Amino acid sequence: MNNLRFTIPRCMVSSAVGLIFMSSSLSAYAAELSPHQYAIERAQVGPYYGAYLDNSLGQDDLTQNDNSSYNPFIDKELWFCFDAAGTKWIEVGDTVGLISGLNRSGHFWAENYVDSTGTQAYRETLIDPADPVPTGDHNFTVGSGASGTWNVSVDNVTKAVISDFSNDTSADHVDVGLETSSDQTSFRSGTISYNLQYQDSTATWLYLDNFAAFNSNSLGWVATFNSPTNTTYANPTVVFTHS
Fold first, then answer.
1. Mind listing the pLDDT tens digit for each residue in 200-226?
2. Other CB atoms within 10 Å distance of the CB of residue 85
3. What are phi and psi of 93, to 5 degrees?
């Protein structure tokens, strides 16, 4: 996909870099935020052999009102980060923003990897672009596949088989959060990603825990992990709020 929307490719030593599409009514111009802005909770007691989350109202809770030429976006997503330095990852989730000035919205996946020449490379894909814009809750999974591949799934249906991480058998950490490149994006305060899970070395799915916050933004955005042991949430949940 052309016109990638990221600055320095990295899963961030405080998160990841992404992309994004669609919006509602576009009305404003703004300068690109560089570096991108993040509200993230990180599970950092790996290794992780797969990761899963549900996004509550993923598309419905995101807004983007910037029609600048640099393709502004906001996303709400999962990053599956293979190395501690944050140079190799797979990401999947909801995207709202622009590509080449066109409104795009939906689910996406992307990867940052080392190509056959040893060069860092990045690509992103809008999932099922011909389908109507998704509404409501949807789940996203990154999991190991056959012969060193990794699978990306939406609503328990495989959407991509990725072969660029054949030497990576697990992730160092998992990030759950928001990313934006514009101060003209926003979200419904209180939106959540929930039912956070990981797969262990025996292929057993367990609840994610041991999160740490990486709220790297000047927008007043905050990601907060809520464990079911000390909150009213029924399962591990990240709550996103703003001032």
1. 999 999 999 999 999 999 999 999 999
2. 12
3. 165, -150
C-beta separation of 181 from 70 below 8 A = yes
In the chain the beta strands, taken as DSSP E runs, fall at 37-43, 50-55, 62-64, 73-81, 89-99, 102-114, 120-126, 138-144, 150-154, 157-162, 173-180, 185-187, 191-199, 205-207, 211-214, 221-226, 237-242
Q: Which domains does the chain have, with CATH numbers?
A: 37-242 (2.60.120.200)
DSSP symbol at 101:
T
DSSP structure string for 65-89 = -B--TT--EEEEEEEEESSTTS-SE
**Nearest residue to 159 (alpha-carbon basis) of 171, 150, 168:** 150
Q: What region, left, alpha or beta, does residue 13 occupy, with left being phi > 0 and alpha being psi -120 to 50 degrees?
A: alpha
What 224-231 contacts at long range (C-beta under 8 Å, 24+ apart), as own/partner pairs, is 224/41, 225/41
Which residue blocks in 61-155 are alpha helix, DSSP H? none
Q: Read off the pTM.
A: 0.88
4 neighbors 19 (Cβ within 8 angstroms): yes
Q: What would the pLDDT profile of 73-82 be if each residue is shown by its tens digit?
A: 999 999 999 9
* Rounded Cα distance, 64 and 52, in Å: 26
Q: Which amino acid is at 93?
A: G
CB 173, CB 90: distance < 8 Å: no
